[in-house]
Structures are given as structure tokens and as C-alpha cells.
Amino acid sequence: MKTASWDLHAGLVLMIFIRLLSVGMIPCSIRTFGDVVFIVGAVAMALQSA
Questions:
Q1: What gap in Å lies between CA 50 and CA 44, rounded to an integer?
Q2: What is the rounded distance in angstroms from the CA atom of residue 23 to the CA atom of residue 5?
Q3: Does residue 22 have a pLDDT over 70?
Q4: 25: phi then psi, degrees, rounded to nearest 5
Q5: pTM over 0.90
């Protein structure tokens, strides 16, 4: 549960921080990394609570 929580928070922070960068293709492709970290945390939390 600890890993899932850290992944969820890290993913949200990455998505917010990258959103503040200038508009263009680089932030768009980097934002995908934040999305993946968030999704991994969400899946880990779902598997632990099941």
C-alpha cells in the first residue's frame, strides 16, 4: 500500500509540474511518464485492496 500511495502522489506531482512547462511536443511526451507512474500506483492499490 505504501508503494501504491507513493506512485499515486508522484504521478500527480509529475503531471502538475510538467503541465506548467511551456506548450509543445516535449512536455506532451514527458507528461506520459507522469500518467504511467499514476496508473501503476492505481493498479497497485487496486490489486492490494482486492
A1: 10
A2: 29
A3: no
A4: -75, -30
A5: no
